[in-house]
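Quarterly update, task 2.4: 6-O-phosphono-beta-D-glucopyranose-bound model.
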Amino acid sequence: MKGFPDDFLWGGATAANQIEGAYNEDGKGLSTADVQTCGGISGFKVEIPGLDPKYKSAYDKLRLVTYKDNGHFGASILVKMNTYPKLGSPTIIDNEYYPNHHAIDFYHNYKEDIRLFAELGFKSYRMSIAWTRIFPTGMEEVPNEKGLEFYDNVFDECSRYGIEPVVTLSHYDMPLELSKKWNGWADRRTIELFHKYAKTVIDRYHEKVKYWLTFNEINAIIHSGFMTAGVFANDEQLLEQASYHQMLGSALVTKYAHDSYPTLQIGCMISYSPPYPYSSKPEDNLEAIRTFNLRTNYFGDTMVRGYIPEYKKADFERRGIDLDFQENDVRTLEEGVVDYIAISYYQTSVAIANPENEKFTQANLTQHYFNPHLKKSEWGWQIDPIGLRYALNLLYDRYHKPIFIVENGLGAFDTLNDNGTVNDPYRIDYLREHIKEIKKAITVDGVKVMGYTPWGCIDLISCSTGQISKRYGFIYVDYDDLGNGSGKRYKKESFYWYKKVISSNGENLGE
Ligand code: BG6
């Protein structure tokens, strides 16, 4: 193989709650993303019980989830909620700022934004459908036609330019009502409602959308049960149950799509940060396998191979987790295996058997041991292009299914110059180095990679901090972290660079 395959799906990625805004328009219900503040600027100050003070400054920037408990209002840190007991009822509070409510107003600007994607030469556009536009509380019998129409319009607009939509059914939002009533995915009944929602949109759009993903970063439940699964509690049993329910939901929907529309391609999506052993000590190597299995492979193995792996069953037993398995579940998982594997790749991690005195790097959602061989972004995410080639090799070797890199990118502060330009050579460098490694994985290692859609192709709201100033895009959107600004779109230097990358099918990396 000389280079990228001719049908390589170059593009960009976003998620409904991080771009659309219009959080309560045209019948949309409240979602779990609608009760999340912008990190660092909330009126609430939250203490994390038992937190080592040296990590405090990192946590100060994380966004909060606001709630009401016996008439009192409170807030908890989104990504650390797994350390809290059951909280009250998540709700919107007067005078708090919720960045997703307006986001970048894609809802009213989708035509202009998709036209810019077309100008970039996108072959594909990864986006998500907001469940709450279709079923506002999740419990309605009849879908909201206005919500369905919106996505019809978006897909039609993509099709005008020959852009293939890649659609995530659940990207970090779900009906808030289900979180309040049932603790989200912790309750088995949520599977049925998800299935109803997924069937509705697959039936409606199967002629317009060929590539689907069930859950975004399904393994991120480890870091935030609320963000990923609407679980407002810290109970390990509940979180494992919720995670298991999501995988059953994913399998049911995959089977439905395959049976009803055999040409559709359904994928799972995993946050992929493979661990390097900290040293050649046998203990560190074993720890790398252990943590990789429990944090990552469990999810891939279940959705790609169709059964719960032995190491996870042993883990349940060791921790005293008694999952509610039902008779048909084994078959459901077996029958609902995915066609391809999608990953987000931002960084690798480091595994240490005995972590005392080792330094951490805080990466918003996650905390990793610091790798002294790598640089890090302004938000502490360690940058490792070779790690992407490493990741692709591991994945392909394990499953032999096509891989779609549906997220990768650099969150950075950008400056809009007076003449409307944005110089972002740091972003170009980052992407160029990663693309080079993808090419090597394809050409040297023989890995089958379907496409590459860098994250936040247009600036959007960060999921972990709520900031827009943590920018990933090729297109600058003129808003600040409080939503002030014109909302105008500007092409960054990276816009022109990525356009050339796509038009040359990855041969011209502008070096
Ligand atoms: C992934 C998510 O974890 O990383 C996205 O799927 C998210 O929703 C992206 O936005 C980047 O993370 P952040 O915290 O910088 O927004």
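Highlight for this quarter: The longest helix spans residues 236-260.
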